[in-house]
Amino acid sequence: MEFKLVKIGNQIWMADNLDVDTYRNGDPIPEVTDTDEWDRLTTGAWCYYNNDPENGKLYGKLYNWYALVDPRGLAPEGFRIAGDDDWKLLLQTVGGHLNAGAILKSTELWKAPNEGATNEAGFNAKPGGLCDDDCSFMDRGSIGYWWTPAEEGKKLAWSYIMEYDNAHVNRSYYEKKDGLSVRCVKV
Predict the structure, then answer these.
(1) What are the tens digits of pLDDT across the range 129-145?
(2) DSSP letters of 18-77?
(3) Is there a contact between 169 and 104 (Cβ–Cβ < 8 Å)?
(4) Domain count across the chain
(5) Which of 60, 86, 94, 104 could disulfide-pair with 17, CB 3.0 to 4.6 Å?
(6) Across-strand partners of 162?
(7) Residue 111's domain spans which residues?
(8) What DSSP element (H or E) covers 146?
(9) What pLDDT is recorded for position 89?
(10) What separation, in Å, do the N-terminal and C-terminal C-alpha atoms of the chain show?
């Protein structure tokens, strides 16, 4: 499987959101479209935004946090899930979190005004939205959310977000059951 890559500073990132349906060892990652089932999960799963495969072509898959940390490996061979240190270095490389969104966001798919977006770094950040713990979909076109493996207690984990109406990249936590986008870094 080939992935579009971009070198930013000394890091090589995937230039698109992750879009795999098997773990590194070949085991399938379940696609879950049922609201009740999604809410009960404590194991890895994915879905498309609004359960529509057409959204997957544009934004990739939304994964719950459990898929990230599954020992079978969500990141394809030769990659790792981007963690806090990866994101912090990326933001430092492009001049800090207050303006990083402008340099990292795609110039397409974002709701207006897509504040300052140039995609100068080629990162191609897309506003894939999220699937929350009860499988409600929100924020496609407005916000991009990307998981990290870092936990914040039993129910929460850290992510990085970009929004249509500013150029910031912020760190925030979400429920592990939520479905967010994922980016990988070459090892």
Answers:
(1) 999 987 799 999 999 99
(2) ---SB-TTSPBPPB---HHHHHH--S--EE-GGG-HHHHHHH--EE-HHHHH-TT-SSPT
(3) yes
(4) 1
(5) 60
(6) 144, 169
(7) 5-186
(8) strand 143-152
(9) 98
(10) 16
